[in-house]
Amino acid sequence: MTKDVLVSLRGLQFEQSDGDPEQIETITVGTYYEKNGKHYVIYDEVSEGFDEPTKNRMKFGEHILELTRTGLVNVHMVFEENRKNMTSYHTPYGNIMIGIDTKQIQISQQEDRITVTVNYALDVNYEFLADCKIVLDIRSKEKREAFLL
Predict the structure, then answer these.
(1) What is the DSSP letter of 74?
(2) Nearest alpha-carbon partner for 118 in 108, 129, 110, 127
(3) Given phi > 0 = left and psi -120 to 50 = alpha, else beta, which region is 51?
(4) Least C-beta-crowded within 10 Å: which of 1, 43, 56, 102?
(5) C-alpha to C-alpha distance for 147 and 134, rounded to whole angstroms
(6) How many C-beta neighbours within 10 Å does residue 139 have?
(7) CA distance 33 to 16
(8) Is 131 exposed, middle or buried (0-12, 13-18, 19+ CB in 10 A)?
(9) By the 8 A CB rule, do 128 and 121 touch?
């Protein structure tokens, strides 16, 4: 895997009702490195209507993914397989207590691509909100044409 990467982050939220799942996708450039058996991805995210970007750092390994966001929003989220973690999510509109009950983390690694899939239940202010899924797709920048297909 190269240092310069393209990052696709897709999130699905499955509502309690019979409606279709809500899907969000972000594609951006980032930096990848591996250290002490852990993978790291760093990228900036710009939110519509705000000038300040949010800096994102993902650290992942077997059965765990950590996401640290600083800037417009501030949070350290820990997705740990078969464990529930609580954190305070600081936004421009106030703080929210969230719970992340991670059911499964799958990591698939190839020479120029890493895919991480996380299935979890999300609580907001101690109440169940939705079952969710994140798919993180990291590819060497040289392989960017694969994102365009």
Answers:
(1) B
(2) 108
(3) alpha
(4) 1
(5) 17
(6) 22
(7) 38
(8) middle
(9) yes
* Tens-binned pLDDT, residue by residue, of the chain (149 aa): 789 999 999 987 776 555 666 778 889 999 999 999 999 999 998 878 888 889 999 999 999 999 999 998 899 999 999 999 999 999 888 999 999 999 999 999 999 999 999 999 999 999 999 999 999 999 998 765 555 54
Token pair listed for 118: 């996380």
* Token output for 5: 């990467």
Residue 97: CB partners within 8 Å, gap ≥ 6? 86, 87, 88, 89, 124, 125, 126
Q: Which residues have CB under 8 Å from 128's CB, separation 6+?
A: 16, 121, 122
Per DSSP bridges, beta strands 54-61 and 113-124 are: unpaired
Indicate the domain borders of the chain. 4-148
- Side chain identity at residue 136, one-letter code: L
